[in-house]
Specification:
InterPro entries: DUF819 (IPR008537). Keywords: Membrane, Transmembrane, Transmembrane helix. It comes from Methylophaga aminisulfidivorans. This is DUF819 family protein. By secondary structure, the chain is mostly helical. The longest helix is centred in the N-terminal third of the chain and has 32 residues.
């Protein structure tokens, strides 16, 4: 019953891109620069959907997830430097271990505090999976356990979407606080002049067409690799590694042909715009009315999980930094952006982590965010099933 119906594809696309335009404009205004474009896109998506201006679900949203999301990775990684990636990934991986431990701890504590009835074990497993790897793992655990209570599934999905997006918005705001920043190791995560040519490349129709062609080709090659590996007859679903293959091919191209990549001017700008469309799309699925009417106890359950997750990531990161400093190993200390990207990858998956890194100007954390996100895809489902069985 939204103003723009779920069948009005072009009207919905216009609304989503208008959100991206507003987000880019708002973050440059005096009243809006405290928030990033990503946060403005999330806020607008939640507001528009819950005011019934755009729907919570629509076929065109699937287009965003199926086509725009894979395109983001090659666009973001056009200037990736393999040496910098290797040096940065280890710390983000350590932060991701903290994130997974925080999720599991939160699920155990929430299960002890609240009684979700006969379905508690399945719900515990589903939320473990989704806050380790993302929504794909949420669905995988649900299907693996044969869980088919549609009302409860709808409520759990609403809680997952709303609180997951709210958590993302909260951690995105953390770098704006000087008090928070001064308690963590400071590290510059923007590309250096040796990573990207200092001269500004001119954006032309040719460079934009070349950038898009390159992006489609990388995704097509990665999907071809997935197809051939699955056709080989193994029991493993290589589709789970799709984003890893896209990342690998993008990094190889960027490292082997850096001068050619610099000529694809405008590619990263397209990526940033599409990332904001993506944020608006995922936040549109947060249905506050369903949440409040059907799932107050689930709200508390997930709130405990996320509080535990956040405490483990940022509290644990602070304690580790203190230990590393006393050991004289300051290079091992975790920066706040590294902790944020690892947490983001665990809570919302490998697609939002690089989008946030790009939106915040943390280019060197784009690939590490994807890598830990893919790791979350791999371990999320078995970890969720383990918790459900326990």
């Amino acid at each position: 019953m939204s103003l723009i119906s779920s069948q009005q594809d072009f009207s919905l696309l216009a609304a989503l891109f208008a959100v991206a335009v507003f987000a880019l404009w708002a973050e440059k205004q005096a009243w809006g620069k405290l928030l990033t474009g990503a946060v403005w896109a999330i806020l607008m998506g939640v507001v528009l959907s819950n005011l019934n201006i755009i729907p919570h679900k629509a076929p065109v949203y699937s287009v965003v997830f199926s086509y725009i999301v894979p395109m983001l990775l090659p666009l973001f990684l056009m200037q990736a430097n393999i040496k910098r990636i290797l040096s940065e990934s280890g710390r983000v991986g350590l932060a991701f271990i903290l994130a997974c431990a925080g999720t599991v701890t939160g699920v155990v504590v929430a299960s002890l505090l609240f009684d979700l009835g006969n379905n508690e074990s399945v719900l515990a497993g589903m939320f473990t999976a989704t806050y380790t790897g993302g929504s794909a793992n949420f669905a995988a655990v649900m299907q693996s356990t044969g869980f088919n209570d549609l009302n409860l599934i709808s409520a759990a999905t609403a809680v997952d979407n709303l609180l997951g997006v709210s958590f993302l918005m909260l951690i995105t705001l953390l770098p704006a606080s000087h008090y928070v920043m001064q308690h963590f190791y400071e590290r510059d995560h923007a590309y250096k002049t040796d990573d990207v040519a200092p001269e500004k490349q001119t954006i032309t129709a040719y460079s934009l067409a070349a950038a898009l062609t390159y992006t489609f080709a990388v995704v097509a090659l990665a999907d071809g690799v997935v197809y051939l590996l699955n056709k080989a007859g193994t029991n493993f679903d290589f589709g789970l590694l799709r984003y890893l293959f896209i990342t690998l091919l993008s990094v190889i191209a960027a490292s082997a042909f850096p001068q050619q990549m610099k000529k694809l001017a405008g590619g990263q700008e397209i990526g940033l715009m599409l990332a904001l469309v993506f944020f608006a799309t995922i936040s549109a699925g947060a249905n506050i009315s369903i949440l409040l009417s059907n799932a107050p106890i689930l709200l508390l359950f997930v709130l405990v999980i996320l509080l535990s997750h956040g405490a483990m990531v940022f509290g644990g990161g602070f304690l580790l930094n203190t230990l590393f400093h006393r050991m004289g190993r300051d290079k091992l200390q975790l920066s706040l952006p590294e902790l944020i990207i690892a947490s983001n990858a665990a809570i919302l998956g490998a697609t939002t982590a690089p989008a946030l890194a790009m939106a915040r100007g943390w280019q060197s954390l784009i690939t590490p965010g994807i890598l830990v996100g893919v790791a979350g895809y791999i371990i999320g489902t078995p970890l969720g099933l383990l918790i459900a069985s326990w």
